[in-house]
Automatic annotation (TrEMBL):
Domain RNase H type-1: 1-127
Species per Swiss-Prot/TrEMBL record: Linum tenue
Pfam family, one: RVT_3
PROSITE patterns: RNASE_H_1
Descriptive protein name: RNase H type-1 domain-containing protein
GO MF entries: nucleic acid binding; RNA-DNA hybrid ribonuclease activity
Family annotation (InterPro entries): RNase_H-like, RNase_H-like_dom_plant, RNaseH-like_sf, RNaseH_domain, RNaseH_sf
Length: 159
């Protein structure tokens, strides 16, 4: 299963959000999430998105996962050696706990052009109440973005 996630911060309010989806081997959305996080940094939002996506994959029973993020900063922090003085220590510890489970997780950088569906969900999350919201089927507007992600086609607007 592929897990794509993304983070978003509204500059005017500093409110952060994350969004993501699980896609099967055919590229179809299996489940999606939106998370309105409150006041966070963009890096923290990206990391929360990755962790939420992995937790969703584990809970759904998937044991071979491809985690795709468009933030090289989040990837670097999440995969760095344990550093208790790191301001993201609680998140990196939770990430390591997930990675130590009996499953195969490959982490890779995904160009923004191939992560528009997760970006759309992260931006949409700003209009939801605080907390994480799950959708068992493809969220409205995602089908074309998922197709564009698979093809690597950049889009300048959201549906």
């Amino acid at each position: 299963i592929a897990v794509n996630s993304d983070g978003s911060v509204q500059q005017s309010t500093s409110i952060a959000a994350a969004g993501g989806l699980l896609r099967n081997h055919l590229g179809k959305c299996v489940v999606a999430f939106l998370a309105n996080l409150g006041t966070y940094t963009i890096t923290r939002a990206e990391m929360v998105g990755a962790i939420t996506g992995l937790e969703m994959a584990w809970t759904s029973g998937y044991r071979k996962v491809s985690l795709r993020l468009d933030s090289t900063t989040a990837i670097t922090i999440l995969t760095a050696r344990d550093n208790r003085s790191n301001i993201y220590y609680n998140l990196t510890r939770r990430f390591r706990e997930l990675m130590e489970r009996k499953w195969e997780v490959k982490i890779s950088h995904s160009y923004r052009e191939c992560n528009k569906a997760a970006d759309y969900l992260a931006n949409k999350a700003h209009s939801f109440t605080l907390g994480t919201h799950y959708f068992g089927i493809s969220y409205s507007g995602l089908n074309f973005l998922i197709l564009y992600d698979r093809m690597g086609i950049a889009q300048n607007h959201f549906i």
